[in-house]
Write a structure and sequence with these properties.
Helix content: 25-40%
Strand content: 15-25%
Largest sheet: 8 strands, mixed
Oligomer: single chain
Number of helices: 32
Length: 1039
């Protein structure tokens, strides 16, 4: 290709794309760079030529850039390529596949590329009924393959971007629609939609929990892939933008397996320039969408790389005699504009305390109690009604001696239907012939009915019923000889209440916001919001209780500055771990002993003495914190409880009369839990109407108080039950006279239920929090190993940087960083990481920033954040281990981890209220030698949570709080002296006797042979080589 005059003729690149795509900034930047090399002439076809002219009249070129977009005549471009045979950067025929998601998945699977588990529902016409498709409340089934909610529903049409995610009833139900960005939104949540679409053909696939981050991969040829993380539209649908209005994304490193996947996608679809979506979930990566021609936006480094790779591709195809080596100085570098930095629209964070320049935050671990809730309630009644017994048999598989749990909407609706028939239409007076037991039974059935009717529909996680058979008889089998057992009596237990209130949601969100602004010195909020990218590695765990899960979701909303309702946030970001954060079974015997001893102390008439030689440490005595006149207060509590019960009874009677007149439940403003999950002002109308928060009417409130009164003091047996004190205290905030008495008793009783003295507190605390303590140690150890690994690599890298490095060495460094981290963890002698179910490196996804593309001082360093949401029992237990661990025989002579002044404050604190929390932060002093114990420092703080004291004042703040029914959360208090230094080594030594050993944690759930999952057989590799269109000798268009 030599022109007249001896000059090399330029290679003609035809750009046959719609003008809208041609005029995009990335396309312009890359084509400019290609021309700057001097070897190419770029010919723009233009819309008029493409749409109106015959292909014979199209410009002739050596290489063709052509790809489909809206309105593009793909078949016409194919005909041109057949006529002129240019080298195709992206093959044209395979672009038809990209319009059909079924064909995309089929092609991915053909090439051994992992995709989410999926099934196809093909309809020939809208709403066609299909025998192989079943939809139930919480799952769909396709050809016998079941997909439990949350699942994803995608139209088979690749150009239809309306993708739905359906959420389980246990998380509040509802559906979120994802769509192409419109302004600042990329998704919308609809709490009312629970049924899937039927108007077309769809793919159903498992929802992949990715921690709220999506990865977009961009290939330029099979050997180059650039990846970026962005906030997933699944979380809240709000697009995060920088000051220029562009979506904020961060470049990340791909693992070796992911690089192989990128190569395979490129080959499978014969598209050199190709974008696809990657889901990272539990150590595996999956391709969920292939987009075809895509360029990265706003990255000058990427533009440089793409131009260099495309140049080599084109020269190898059309001028192999020319050298494709990259020149020492790129031709367009002379007047290159400075790359703008990512200025985030949100303000930066504040700082707690003072830190030296050499100290960097490495880890934040917080254990947090749930927010304000309605009182928990239980109704127990023995039932003999055949309708209820039949219901039990229906849902326990017909086994007469097995208990049944009713939780789903379908099951609870069945129970409600039966209860409505059984509840008497009229309420007989006590003076009638009805016996007292019949009267009580009817009242309890009425209460069950009222609870089940709350809110107008069953939305989730706050009501459950157990039916346990108690008596059986033998009856003759119907139509068959012989006998069978049949239950004739069962115990029905309805548990309800304990719902997170509007105040609880607000408290959790506010605390999340406080953490965002104060726990991360010097970090911009945008980095936290995109939490799984380069610096923030966040995981949130919750117990199984609905109020705890929703507190975690509301906190995440504040922490990450999210918008919208809580259900999508819960499903995307919160992991349930009931074995670590639920239950008291391990310590039940010791707790019963403590309660029995406590009962003896309180009910004895003698005054309680709180000294016993511990005047400087009053917390060391048995029953510390109990008021000296506890016995007198208890009797007073019984009187006041009766008084409140009578007042509520009168209100309930009024409500009952109104109900009789209207014969409906419309008197009370309806309470929709599904809507309430995402709104902090749902109860305002009820408060204004003088009604209780939540969905409880006065009838249910009366039943609750009557039960409390009866359980607190059994008049027939003349016996007190002190375990009811916390429940009464829980129910009477706002009833001043009763509250003052209940608070005095509860402040003494609740801490002592977890141990009557420090040694018993330590024993009970270590049993309840054993698994959580083990997990905290693993979190800290993982952070330590990662920090050391990065420090060693950085040290080696600094030595190399004195001499000039090539691009290959730079890439090798990044590759070594990943491999070194992997190897170090897998060969760890203590094996904490490989044994930790949630933090195993193969399972817990890392979105590590690629330093070549971002201006960050220490890009390889992470801040690890672990949040554990739980109940009061685990907060007390962990605090007791923290402050009394030195009392263990194995640690005798050691000082407490908590300083004396903090022990005194904790003794006076009494209650760890809603949203109380314990926070451990680990700092690394980078100027201290790696082996020095002082390299890693632990800082401990606690907050006692919701604070009542502002209500006791008579000022504007108190009036506002009364109106909102919301208590403020107290700020953190130190557990160490200012200036003291707790090393990680010391904390590990003090925790270890009480923590579950790392090797006892279950192994990660990643299936065996994980690495082999991505490997290719020789036959597949051979097929890949033959199909590769850019291979010099394998492509028909190559010359």
């Amino acid at each position: 290709m030599v022109a007249e005059g001896g000059e090399e003729e330029k290679i003609k690149i035809g750009v046959c794309v719609m003008e809208k795509k041609l005029l995009s900034a990335p396309m312009g930047q890359i084509l400019e760079r290609l021309q700057a090399f001097g070897e190419f002439e770029v010919i723009h076809f233009g819309d008029k030529v493409i749409l109106e002219d015959a292909i014979e009249n199209w410009p002739i070129c050596d290489c063709l850039i052509a790809f489909y977009s809206s309105g593009y005549p793909l078949e016409k471009a194919e005909a041109y390529a057949t006529l002129r045979k240019p080298f195709l950067v992206n093959e044209l025929e395979p672009q038809h596949l990209l319009h059909d998601r079924r064909k995309v998945y089929e092609r991915l699977e053909m090439f051994g590329i992992p995709v989410p588990r999926y099934a196809l529902v093909n309809r020939e016409f809208p709403y066609q009924e299909l025998g192989y498709f079943i939809e139930e409340e919480d799952f769909v089934e396709v050809h016998g393959s079941r997909f439990w909610k949350p699942f994803v529903e995608k139209p088979v049409d690749g150009d239809d971007h309306s993708i739905m995610i359906y959420y389980p009833s246990s998380a509040g139900g509802g559906m979120k629609e994802l769509f192409r960005k419109v302004g600042n939104r990329s998704s919308e949540f609809n709490p009312e939609v629970r049924r899937v679409r039927r108007e077309g053909s769809y793919i159903y696939e498992e929802f992949m929990p990715t921690g709220g981050t999506d990865v977009k991969v961009y290939t330029v040829g099979p050997e180059y892939a650039h990846a970026e993380a962005r906030k997933s539209p699944v979380v809240d649908g709000v697009v995060m933008r920088n000051l220029d209005g562009k979506e904020v994304r961060y470049p990340v490193l791909l693992t070796p397996n992911e690089k192989q996947m990128a190569r395979d996608v490129c080959i499978a679809f014969s598209q050199a320039v190709c974008g696809f979506d990657l889901l990272r979930c539990e150590g595996r990566s999956y391709v969920c969408d292939v987009n075809g021609w895509s360029f990265v936006k706003n990255s000058y480094k990427y533009y440089d790389d793409a131009a260099c790779v495309l140049r080599k591709l084109l020269l190898d195809a059309k001028a192999p005699h020319l050298s494709s080596t990259i020149p020492p100085t790129l031709p367009w570098k002379v007047n290159e504009p400075v790359q703008p930095s990512e200025g985030l629209t949100r303000q930066g964070s504040g700082i707690i305390g003072t830190f030296g320049q050499s100290e960097e935050l490495r880890c934040v671990i917080a254990i947090i109690r749930h927010g304000d809730r309605t009182p928990k309630q239980k109704v127990k009644l023995k039932v003999t009604e055949e309708k209820l017994l039949n219901l039990m048999l229906k849902y326990n598989g017909g086994r007469p001696r097995s208990e049944t749990k009713l939780k789903s909407a379908v099951q609870l609706q069945d129970l409600l239907d039966a209860t409505r028939i059984l509840v008497p239409r009229t309420r007989p007076g006590r003076e009638s012939d009805s016996e007292a037991e019949d009267f009580e039974h009817a009242e309890k059935l009425r209460q069950v009915k009222a609870v089940l009717e709350e809110g107008g529909h069953f939305s989730g996680i706050y009501r459950k019923v157990q039916l346990k058979p108690l008596k059986w008889v033998k009856v003759l089998k119907s139509n068959v000889e012989g006998e069978e057992e049949r239950p004739v009596e069962a115990l029905m237990v309805l548990k309800y209440g304990g719902v997170l209130t509007h105040a609880g949601r607000k408290q959790a969100e506010e605390l999340g916001r406080y953490f965002r602004n104060n726990m991360y010195p010097g970090e911009g909020t945008g980095l936290l919001r995109l939490h799984s990218t380069y610096r923030h590695d966040l995981k949130i765990y919750s117990s199984d209780e609905g109020r705890v899960q929703m507190s975690a979701a509301a906190f995440a909303k504040g922490l990450l500055d999210l918008e919208g309702q809580l259900t999508p946030i819960l499903v995307s970001l919160v992991s349930k771990d009931s074995s670590m954060l639920d239950g008291l079974d391990n310590a039940s015997i010791e707790m019963e002993e403590a309660k029995a001893r406590l009962n003896g102390i309180i009910t004895s008439v003698a005054k309680i003495v709180n000294s016993n030689g511990y005047s400087e440490c009053p917390w060391m005595t048995d029953g510390a914190g109990l008021p000296s006149n506890a016995s007198e207060l208890l009797r007073n509590l019984v009187k006041l409880t009766k008084k409140v019960t009578e007042q509520v009874r009168l209100l309930a009677m009024d409500e009952d009369e109104e109900l009789t007149e209207t014969s409906s439940y419309d008197v009370i403003p309806p309470y929709d839990q599904a809507k309430a999950l995402g709104k902090t002002n749902i109860d305002i109308d009820r408060i204004a109407a003088g009604l209780p928060c939540g969905s409880e009417g006065f009838l249910l409130m009366y039943a609750r108080w009557k039960k409390l009164e009866r359980d607190l003091y059994n008049e027939r047996k003349e016996r007190f039950d002190i375990t009811q004190i916390p429940d009464i205290y829980d129910s009477c905030k706002g009833l001043d006279e009763l509250f003052k008495v209940a608070q005095l008793l509860a402040d003494g009783v609740i801490p002592n239920e977890y141990g009557i003295n420090p040694k018993q507190k330590l024993k009970i605390g270590s049993k309840i929090a054993r698994r959580l303590l083990g997990k905290i140690l693993i979190d800290l150890r993982n952070t330590l190993e990662e920090a050391i690994s990065v420090a060693e690599l950085k040290c080696n890298h600094d030595h190399q940087s004195a001499s000039k490095k090539t691009d290959k060495e730079d890439t090798d460094y990044q590759s070594k960083l990943f491999i070194k981290n992997e190897d170090m963890r897998r060969t760890s002698t203590t094996s904490e990481i490989s044994m930790d179910q949630d933090d195993d490196d193969d399972k817990e996804t890392k979105y590590r920033l690629d330093p070549k593309y971002a201006n960050v001082r220490t890009p390889d360093r992470h801040v690890r954040t672990r949040l554990y949401f739980t109940s009061e029992s685990h907060i007390h237990s962990l605090m007791n281990v923290l402050r009394y661990c030195n009392l263990d025989e194995s640690l005798q002579g050691e000082e407490s981890l908590v300083c004396h002044s903090a022990l005194e404050r904790l003794y006076k604190t009494k209650e760890l209220d809603y949203m109380s929390n314990i926070v451990l932060r680990m700092f690394e002093n980078t100027e201290v030698a790696l082996e020095d114990p002082k390299r890693f420092r632990i800082e401990m703080t606690f907050s006692r949570g919701a604070d009542l004291s502002p209500l006791e004042k008579d000022d504007s703040e108190a009036i506002s709080l009364h109106q909102e029914h919301t208590l403020p959360i107290m700020g953190p208090e130190r557990l160490q002296e200012v200036g003291s230094y707790l090393t990680l080594e010391k904390m590990e030594m003090m925790f270890r006797p009480f923590a579950m050993p790392a090797e006892d944690f279950p192994p990660p759930s990643t299936p065996a042979g994980f690495s082999g999952y991505f490997s290719k057989s020789a036959a597949v590799l051979e097929r890949l080589v033959n199909l590769w269109p850019f291979h010099k000798h394998g492509s028909a268009n190559g010359k």
